[in-house]
Specification:
The complex is a heterodimer.
Chain A: E1 2-10, H1 15-25, E2 30-37, E3 43-51, H2 54-66, E4 70-75, E5 81-92, H3 98-107, E6 111-116, E7 119-126, H4 128-139, E8 143-148, E9 152-155
Antiparallel strand pairs in A: 1-3, 1-4, 2-3, 5-7, 5-8, 5-9, 6-7
Chain B: E1 2-4, H1 5-15, E2 20-23, H2 30-36, E3 42-45, H3 49-63, E4 67-71, H4 75-89, E5 94-100, H5 116-120, E6 126-129, H6 136-148, E7 155-160, H7 161-165, E8 167-169, H8 189-201, E9 205-209, H9 211-215, H10 219-229, E10 233-235, E11 250-253, H11 260-268, E12 271-275, H12 281-284, E13 295-300, E14 314-317, H13 320-330, H14 337-349, H15 362-373, E15 378-381, H16 385-393, E16 402-403, H17 414-424, E17 430-435, H18 436-439, H19 445-451, E18 457-462, H20 467-476, H21 492-498, E19 502-506, H22 512-521, E20 526-531
Helix pairs in contact in B: 1-2, 1-6, 3-4, 3-17, 8-13, 10-13, 15-16, 15-22
The chains are: A alpha+beta, B alpha/beta.
Chain lengths: 159, 556
């Protein structure tokens, strides 16, 4: 089962290395990891997505908490949370397909950020379902290049 | 007051109570060693950095204080790696200080450069690369704090040479301020209550005590629990000495080469009280078949040890000593008469034994060391058969009397660890029970022992083989002894003498006692080369992949 873990960590050099070393040393496979500074520049927030059973997940969370530079770890799975991902995708575009691609872009409320004679580059944000749905449709035209940020997530509510 | 980075390193060590450090210097550590030149601190120059790391480890395990080792950049630091990994697996508090090339050179493949924080990341509790001298006082403070608190472990500080030279306004911090690191010391009262209830309801309880008992200083509390509740107690290899093996409740060591009665008891128990132990594969054997009827209480300071290998019913995160003190207030005297009767029966039928055929047996050597030292020595072991015989045939009754690489299983650990232990405990007898293979892995430290007048004793159980591997080849690989013979190895007596130590050779059973007696009377390092029976095996034994009650061998 896919789990989304949110971790607050010290924003120091070596922290990301500590976390990725932990994952590889313990044989945990991660689907994605996104990290960025918070409002406090000394602290970063990480969102980690991984596919694991309950037992492995429990170990992942405990091992993360054990790292000295990790401040807080929260498993968002099962809670009410918002998640988003940003994707940039460069799609093959010919005069014949161009308008169809633009319609698809509209349906998904995506944005064209670069247009060239033989390609269109599209920016899209959304949850995994939306992004995967979009990629499936535009896949028909041929994808020249793609980059995804990995999921970021946050619990809903006042806290 | 302004101080250089190098001065800060040494001053911080002194403020942390360090009286001894082990290591080898080199180009990238020259500034620190220049300060060390007239510092009020004993520095032991070893002959290999691995020796330094194990000495710091042996010093820490024997004394309970933080051990310190130091090495230069690149190869100096990488030579520490095995020692650091050994300490990490066995939760030993050491601080390793390494030199690094100039900050401006880092990443340029400079001479004697290695990414030491990168290399040691998975084998340290934490590590630091100091990029600014202003951070050094805080880092030194944190490093010692992290090493010795919570579940202890090694911390490495990598200090570039320019940081050692740079000056800063210096004041050593009084307190550690870390928002991220707060180990849990007190157990949850509700969980402790549940544990007591489970103990009262059990019919066949067993205590399974590990190294955490010794680290936490909880031998007294453990004995109180066992005696008050009347529960049979087995220990792991690292737990030996945490509960007196001479006690009627003791089941000795459990696991792969544990006693039959300990393994039978844990497999049949209905309640396992695991204390400062981590259900290592050498203890559980085949995991799916481990203790099928047992409810499990697990007390450990490291939450990640709980429910890692086996599902735990009553987890209690906390310091073992604190938790046991609370638990002891709640437990009542237990009866369990049929259970004790059954265990007595097993003990009678399946004692630890070996065939005494008049030849010089390694087990006999261990028994004689026990008798000669009246069980009061600090025993270090190497890894393999020597380690298991030392565990089986010496009776440990006090904490910090057995120093052994349990987790990593590092050959070459015992001798330098013995030197470290002897330096930390000058009034004790320190014996390294060694194999001829392991001893050769750090034999160069004979120089360190002899020159520093460290009177450690080494008992080589010399069988001319990498014995434990040969045993596996005999039992599971049709006696195809692929590259396990060490025949033609050195004359250990001459080697000892060449280094300025004393060498004694023993080839007959009758020579064992006089040789040990003589060794103990000499105030120098002594190597006794016991030519033991070549193909003696360690029994009983749980074959790999079997349940722990499916033991072979070692029947009277």
């Amino acid at each position: 089962m896919k789990h989304t873990i949110s971790a607050l960590v010290e924003n120091r050099s070596g922290v990301l290395a500590h976390i990725s070393t932990l994952f590889s040393a313990r044989g945990f496979n991660i689907d994605s990891l996104a990290v960025g500074e918070t409002d406090d520049p000394a602290v970063s927030k990480m969102t980690i997505v991984l596919d694991a059973d309950e037992r492995i997940l429990e170990q992942v969370v405990k091992q993360l908490r054990k790292l000295i530079d990790v401040i807080k770890v929260q498993d968002l799975t099962g809670q009410n949370f918002i998640d988003r991902e940003l994707v940039l995708v460069k799609i093959n575009a010919t005069p014949a397909t161009r308008s169809e691609i633009m319609q698809t872009v509209d349906i998904f409320r995506a944005k064209i950020v670069d247009a060239k004679p033989r390609s269109l580059t599209v920016e899209l944000t959304g949850d995994a379902d939306k992004i995967n749905g979009f990629l499936e449709l535009v896949g028909e035209f041929g994808i020249k290049d793609i980059v995804r940020t990995g999921k970021i997530a946050m619990a809903r509510g006042n806290k | 007051m302004k101080k250089t980075g190098a001065q800060i390193v040494i001053d911080a060590m002194l403020k942390e109570g360090v009286d001894t450090a082990f290591g080898i210097l080199g180009g990238a550590m020259l500034p620190v060693f220049d300060v060390l030149y007239d510092a009020p601190l004993r520095f032991i120059l070893t002959r290999h950095e691995q020796g330094a790391a194990h000495m710091a480890d042996g010093y820490a395990r024997a004394t309970g204080k933080v051990g310190v080792c130091m090495a230069t950049s690149g190869p100096g630091a990488t030579n520490l790696v095995t020692g650091i990994a050994t300490a990490n697996m066995d939760s030993v508090p050491i601080v390793a200080i390494t030199g690094q090339v100039f900050t401006t050179m880092i990443g340029n493949d400079a001479f004697q450069e290695a990414d030491v924080t990168g290399i040691t990341r998975p084998i340290t509790k934490h590590n630091y690369l100091v990029k600014d001298v202003k951070e050094l006082p805080r880092i030194m403070k944190e490093a010692f704090h992290i090493a010795r608190t919570g579940r202890p472990g090694p911390v490495l500080i990598d200090i570039p040479k320019d940081v050692q030279i740079a000056e800063t306004e210096y004041k050593y911090p009084k307190n550690v301020e870390m928002r991220t690191y707060k180990p849990t010391y007190s157990g949850h009262p509700q969980q402790i209550k549940r544990a007591a209830e489970a103990i009262h309801q059990a019919k066949k309880p067993i205590i399974y005590a590990g190294g955490g008992v010794i680290i936490s200083g909880a031998a007294k509390e453990l004995a109180e629990l066992a005696k008050k509740a009347n529960i049979p107690t087995a220990t792991t290899l690292l737990g030996l000495g945490g509960f007196p093996e001479t006690d009627r409740l003791s089941l000795g060591m459990l696991g792969m080469h544990g006693t039959r009665y300990a393994n039978y008891a844990i497999m049949e128990s209905d309640l396992i009280i695991a204390i400062g132990a981590r259900f290592d594969d050498r203890v559980t054997g085949k995991l799916d078949e481990f203790a099928p009827h047992a409810k499990i209480i697990h007390i450990d300071i490291d939450p990640s040890s709980i429910s890692k290998n086996v599902r735990v019913d009553i987890p209690i995160v906390g310091d073992v000593q604190n938790v046991l003190r609370e638990l002891n207030k709640l437990v009542r005297k237990g009866q369990y008469a049929p259970w004790h009767k059954k265990i007595r029966e097993w003990k009678r039928k399946f004692p630890l034994t070996y065939e005494d055929n008049g030849e010089l047996k390694p087990q006999f050597v261990v028994e004689e060391i026990y008798k000669a030292t009246r069980g009061e020595a600090i025993i270090c072991t190497e890894v393999g058969q020597n380690q298991m015989w030392a565990a089986q045939f010496y009776q440990y009754t006090k904490p910090r009397t057995l120093l052994s690489s349990g987790g990593l299983g590092t050959m070459g650990y015992g001798f330098p660890a013995a030197i470290g232990a002897q330096i930390g405990c000058p009034d004790r007898i320190v014996f390294d029970i060694a194999g001829d293979g392991s001893f050769q892995m750090n034999i160069q430290e004979l120089a360190t022992a002899a020159i520093n007048k460290v009177p450690v004793k080494v008992a080589i159980l010399n069988n001319g083989y990498l014995g434990m591997v040969r045993q596996w080849q005999e039992l599971f690989y049709k006696k195809r002894y692929s590259h396990t013979s060490l025949a033609g190895g050195p004359d250990f007596v001459k080697v000892a003498e060449a280094y300025g130590a004393v060498g004694i050779r023993v080839e007959k059973k009758g020579g064992v006692r006089p040789a040990i007696k003589k060794a103990l009377s000499i105030k120098k390092p002594v190597v006794i080369d016991f030519h033991v029976e070549l193909e003696e095996n360690v029994f009983p034994m749980v074959p790999a992949g079997k349940a722990v009650n499916q033991m072979i061998g070692g029947m009277a």
